[in-house]
């Protein structure tokens, strides 16, 4: 039996996986247009064009492009009227920005458990945590897999909650044929470097409600009003504007997105088939309501009995040593003491079972792993099999 690379053996793979980000002549052409135009920020046409094209692609009427996915969450929450004293339902399995944005507008995140199939918010658990001050729910489409939006919409309708979809990882994803980000009152996306379309940094709010779009635009632009003079500020806001350079890159990235989604979906299907043949791992299920999965992450579970013997981090380190880019993913948000201090809780009291089970057992592969050929995915499967067959070397 081959020795594990982490213990000095020969790795399954030495070649890199497809590079990310990718770009082509279109990005270069559009960037040069901006450079030569001298309109690098306000006054140019690229941000406007990108907002329209991205919103249209996501079946939303309006888009407000901004500087990051976190900034998009902040301005969307403000535009939805979330304020000091309000409570917002936030799944405990997400990037910290989902919760810090809530804190940044003066509201309090209420951490809720997740559905172990979609890894999205558990509406059942969320319902138990609703109180008088609860005003909003933030379903997060983790890894590009839409949360169960039927359940989220039904809960929000029953309790009069606003829905803000955190679609930072879900460009082009669909729930029952509807685009993630445009099912709730507003949706936000990130264009950070690792995301499925990127301008290095960047974000956008999409919505079909004109008043929400107007307010989001105002908050991201120092409290201006689109219809008034430049120095007539009407409310407290920030400068979260996107530059024309970012928008130029994103226009080209958006054109490439549909073919990349197809590619990632095909690869994920193949990899799931390969991993299903290996005892001890299981791909995270693709819920039947997901008609388009963005696969920002490919996520698989390791059997609980294995994790009891070998901590997940050691498995991840062993896979990395075999040449497979992967990581252990999130820990429950309530384990960040700085966050719990902000929400006025010590942190010791909260335990969410599904969140903890998922955090201890899943492994993430980044989306660029899905952009290569079947041989690349065979290497992933081979490495997983090799590590699991040699667990005694890690125990
Ligand atoms: C689920 C989620 N929400 C919000 C964000 C914040 O986006 P950004 O990094 O662009 O601020 C991210 C980015 O990693 C994310 O994954």
From TrEMBL:
Keywords: Aminotransferase, Pyridoxal phosphate, Transferase. Coiled coil: none annotated. Gene3D superfamilies: Aspartate Aminotransferase, domain 1, Type I PLP-dependent aspartate aminotransferase-like (Major domain). GO terms for biological process: polysaccharide biosynthetic process. One of its GO terms (molecular function) is transaminase activity. InterPro entries: DegT/StrS_aminotransferase, PyrdxlP-dep_Trfase, PyrdxlP-dep_Trfase_major, PyrdxlP-dep_Trfase_small. It holds the Pfam family DegT_DnrJ_EryC1. It comes from the Archaea. Belongs to the DegT/DnrJ/EryC1 family. This is DegT/DnrJ/EryC1/StrS family aminotransferase. It comes from Caldiarchaeum subterraneum. The lineage of its organism: Archaea, Nitrososphaerota, Candidatus Caldarchaeales, Candidatus Caldarchaeaceae, Candidatus Caldarchaeum.
């Amino acid at each position: 039996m081959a020795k594990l690379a982490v213990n000095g053996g020969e790795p399954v793979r030495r070649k890199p996986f497809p590079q990310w980000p990718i770009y082509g002549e279109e990005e270069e052409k559009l960037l040069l247009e901006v450079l030569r135009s001298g309109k690098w920020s306000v006054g140019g046409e690229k941000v406007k064009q990108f907002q329209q094209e991205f919103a249209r692609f996501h079946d939303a009427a309006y888009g407000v492009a901004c500087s990051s996915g976190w900034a998009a969450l902040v301005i969307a929450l403000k535009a939805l009227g979330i304020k000091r004293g309000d409570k917002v339902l936030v799944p405990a399995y997400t990037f910290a920005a989902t919760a810090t944005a809530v804190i940044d507008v003066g509201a309090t995140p209420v951490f809720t458990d997740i559905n172990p199939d979609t890894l999205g918010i558990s509406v059942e658990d969320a319902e138990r945590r609703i109180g008088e001050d609860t005003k909003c729910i933030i379903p997060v489409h983790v890894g590009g897999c839409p949360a169960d939006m039927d359940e989220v919409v039904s809960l929000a309708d029953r309790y009069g909650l606003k829905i803000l979809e955190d679609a930072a990882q879900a460009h082009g994803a669909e729930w029952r044929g509807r685009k993630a980000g445009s099912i709730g009152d507003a949706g936000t996306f990130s264009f950070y470097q690792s995301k499925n379309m990127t301008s290095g940094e960047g974000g956008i709010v999409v919505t079909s409600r004109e008043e929400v779009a107007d307010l989001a635009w105002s908050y991201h632009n120092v409290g201006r009003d689109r219809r008034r003079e430049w120095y007539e500020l009407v409310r407290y806001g920030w400068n979260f504007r996107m530059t024309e350079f970012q928008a130029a890159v994103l226009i080209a990235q958006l054109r490439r997105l549909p073919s990349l989604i197809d590619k990632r979906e095909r690869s994920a299907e193949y990899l799931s088939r390969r991993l299903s043949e290996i005892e001890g791992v299981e791909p995270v299920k693709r819920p039947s309501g997901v008609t388009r999965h963005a696969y920002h992450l490919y996520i698989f579970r390791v059997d609980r009995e294995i994790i009891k013997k070998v901590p997940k981090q050691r498995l991840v380190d062993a896979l990395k040593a075999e040449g497979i880019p992967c990581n252990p993913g999130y820990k429950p948000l309530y384990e960040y003491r700085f966050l719990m201090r902000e929400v006025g809780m010590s942190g010791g009291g909260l335990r969410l079972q599904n969140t903890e089970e998922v955090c201890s057992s899943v492994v993430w592969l980044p989306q660029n792993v899905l952009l290569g050929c079947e041989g690349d995915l065979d290497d992933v499967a081979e490495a997983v099999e090799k590590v699991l067959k040699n667990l005694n070397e890690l125990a």
